[in-house]
UniProtKB/TrEMBL annotation:
EC primary class: ligase
PROSITE patterns: CN_HYDROLASE
NCBIfam families recorded: nadE
Domain CN hydrolase: 5-290
Protein name stated in the entry: Glutamine-dependent NAD(+) synthetase
Assigned EC number: 6.3.5.1
Native organism: Canis lupus familiaris
GO MF: ATP binding; glutaminase activity; NAD+ synthase (glutamine-hydrolyzing) activity
InterPro entries assigned: C-N_Hydrolase, C-N_Hydrolase_sf, Gln-dep_NAD_synthase, NAD/GMP_synthase, NAD_synthase, Rossmann-like_a/b/a_fold
Keyword vocabulary terms for this entry: ATP-binding, Ligase, NAD, Nucleotide-binding
Subunit and partners: Homohexamer.
One example of a Gene Ontology biological process annotation: NAD+ biosynthetic process
Length: 662
């Protein structure tokens, strides 16, 4: 009598609305699962259409094409003799649901709708789907004719049920349901379910403690993971827990869909069960070296561009971005060495050389990454040298140019029209003149970046164009410490969701693990935009002085604003306790007022923020994640008055325990 079952869970590189590619990847995963002996194959959430369709879920085309793909899967000989569990949107009685469709040998066994929808952070599932609220209940779903023609079924069960095979019982969860206070698997287990599946569409976030690097974008040979389990282990473990058995005797039963199929084989005595998975924890620096690098590769191959163009300033942020591309090249070379033919084919298509096989990450980086140091009269020799040294060590094709002729020309046009010539503050100009002259430099760098991205390969006799990489970190975006439409404006920004603190840790990690000694000088140098005149050839401007706060403080403000949902007054009340050993209430109030004033004045910049890898839960990305106004009353009169009243109360009480502030 068989008791050991092999199941497969798949993490696929699906793409929203790429129905043809998604179908091929699903079929390939089923082939791999069968080859490894699996009798049940579980795919990711909404894998048929791709999870990120967003408002395309409203379109009838998305539902139609999903059904067409389902029909193709049902008809394929690849899906025979294995229970297939796929994700897709389903319209039932004119209501749209996020569903699992479970089928075997051209017959649909169950359509199981999601019962808890993710609706926080990046997720908007309640915008497009309705949750199934009828626990342990099913009803008839009338199949569309194109599916009836394949399955010869008119209706199938739709709702909250479990599968009863000849040898076990299987229950399905979908992503968010696992995180609810009373997850479905609790009652399923009490009702005799022995195998639980959970199809997920969850994304990678730093410190989320999930080993998801292999589940991020790059297609690898580990896209299908199988496990063999001994059902007797489950049964014997449960049998001795009397309290569990008492609860099980009282639980309301689930509807069972009977399946004339066994997950186990009769002769499985010598089949070894899988060892428990050893959880892989990465440091934040390691996570950054892997996740965003995979994202870059996926974006590059999908966009069919020939590489990246990066303005390399000699500072930490652009150096971190360059290191991510280099890390990407290292992972690509490793995948090719491990025999990944898909990655090899993608590389050859990108570099336009059918005989090329990447072996050295530096060589590949030279083909895929063009870096450019854009000097001005305000640039120091030190930053120029640091940028050039790093480019040499990672192997990028490096360009050095001077933007002064363009700056002079643009300012000259203004002077010709107005008769006025703006000056830097160091030369007697006003703050308005000083800021305008800095912004001209920054914006011209963006114009030149796109010009070189479009034509630098043409000038070198190569085909294609380059994607422009941005390098503004999450803290600078939060405060708006960037020029609108400067080099923060790019095609994609791999560090846009990462804090300065984490970026420094990542750069230090790269210095040690990738043998890039140039990063030591970059880490040691003060962060500077180099947009104001030098003093005796030395940098006179630093980021933290310009911002009026440290990057460490910015990270605290960011977490309180977004994660703790703190407005100005709430943030003051929290910080007056957090910082009571280093700041007086008056100093805390001044810091909070300064942050919120600058944040409010610059919030409009978030509407044009370059799409970024989402890595921090306090990202200010207005496009997808942080939906707030972009025009505030930046004086916050009511809120700041509440803070001032509280400061007066604290000052009148004198130095004492501040724990009671609320």
């Amino acid at each position: 009598m068989g008791r050991k079952v092999t199941v497969a869970a798949c993490a696929l590189n699906q793409w929203a609305l790429d129905f043809q590619g998604n179908l091929q990847r699903i079929l390939k995963s089923i082939e791999i699962a069968k080859r490894k002996g699996a009798r049940y194959r579980l795919g990711p959430e909404l894998e048929i259409c791709g999870y990120g369709c967003w408002d395309h879920y409203y379109e009838s085309d998305t539902l139609l094409h999903s059904l067409q793909v389902l029909a193709a899967l049902l008809e394929s000989p690849v899906t025979q003799d294995i229970i297939c569990d796929v994700g897709m949107p389903v319209l039932h009685r004119n209501v749209r649901y996020n569903c699992r469709v479970i089928f075997l040998n051209r017959r649909i066994l169950l359509i199981r709708p999601k019962m808890a929808l993710a609706n926080e952070g990046n997720y908007r599932e309640l915008r497009w789907f309705t949750l199934w609220s009828r626990s342990r209940q099913t009803e008839e779903y009338f199949l569309p004719r194109m599916i009836q023609d394949v399955t010869k079924q008119e209706t199938v069960p739709f709702g909250d049920a479990v599968l009863a095979t000849r040898d076990t019982c299987i229950g399905s969860e979908i992503c968010e349901e696992l995180w609810t206070p009373h997850s479905p698997h609790v009652d399923m287990g009490l009702d005799g379910v022995e195998i639980f599946t959970n199809a997920s569409g969850s994304h990678h976030v730093l410190r989320k403690a999930h080993a998801r690097v292999d589940l991020v974008t790059m297609a690898t040979t580990k896209e299908v993971l199988t496990a063999t389990l001994d059902l007797e282990d489950v049964r014997s473990y449960r049998a001795e827990i009397s309290s569990r058995n008492l609860a099980a005797s009282r639980v309301s039963p689930y509807p069972r869909v009977k399946v004339d199929f066994a997950l186990s084989c009769r002769e499985d005595l010598l089949e070894p069960p899988s060892e428990p998975v050893e959880w892989m924890y990465h440091s934040p620096a390691e996570e950054i070296s892997l996740g965003p690098a995979c994202w870059l590769w996926d974006f590059l191959r999908r966009s069919r561009q020939a590489g990246f163009f990066l303005p390399l300033s000699g500072g930490v942020d652009s150096a971190a971005t360059a290191c991510l591309v280099y890390s990407m090249c290292r992972q690509v070379c490793e995948a090719v060495r491990n025999g990944n033919q898909e990655v090899l084919a993608d590389v050859r298509a990108i570099v336009d050389q059918l005989s090329y096989t990447p072996q050295d990450p530096r060589d590949l980086c030279g083909r895929l990454l063009t870096t450019c140091y854009m000097a001005s009269e305000n640039s120091s020799q030190e930053t120029c040298d640091r940028a050039k040294e790093l480019a040499q060590q990672i192997g990028s094709h490096h360009i050095g140019l001077n933007i002064d002729p363009a700056v002079t020309a643009v300012v000259g046009i203004f002077s010709l029209v107005t008769g006025k010539r703006p000056l830097f503050a160091a030369h007697g100009g006003s703050s308005r003149e000083n800021l305008a002259l800095q912004n001209v430099q920054a914006r011209l760098r963006m114009v030149l970046a796109y010009l070189f991205a479009q034509l630098s390969l043409w000038a070198r006799g190569a085909r294609g164009g380059l994607l422009v990489l941005g390098s503004a970190n999450v803290d600078e975006s939060l405060l708006g410490y960037l020029t609108k439409y400067d080099c923060s404006s790019a095609d994609i920004n791999p560090i846009g969701g990462i804090s300065k603190t984490d970026l420094k840790a990542f750069v230090h990690f790269c210095m040690e693990h990738f043998q890039l000694p140039a990063l030591q000088r970059i880490l040691a140098a003060p962060a500077t935009a180099e947009l104001e005149p030098l003093t005796d050839g030395q940098v006179s401007q630093t980021d933290e002085e310009d911002m009026g706060m440290t990057y460490a403080e910015l990270s605290v403000y960011g977490r309180l604003r977004k994660i703790a949902k703190a407005g100005p007054y709430s943030m003051f009340c929290k910080l007056v306790n957090m910082w009571k050993d280093v700041c007086s209430p008056r100093q805390v109030a001044d810091k909070v007022r300064q942050f919120f004033s600058k944040y409010a004045m610059n919030r409009h910049k978030m509407t044009t923020l370059t799409p970024a890898y989402h890595a921090e839960s306090y990202s200010p990305d207005d496009n997808r994640f942080d939906l707030r106004p972009f025009l505030y009353n930046s004086s916050w009169p009511w809120q700041f008055r509440c803070i001032e009243d509280q400061v007066h109360q604290l000052e009148s009480r004198g130095p004492q325990d501040l724990d009671g502030v609320d």
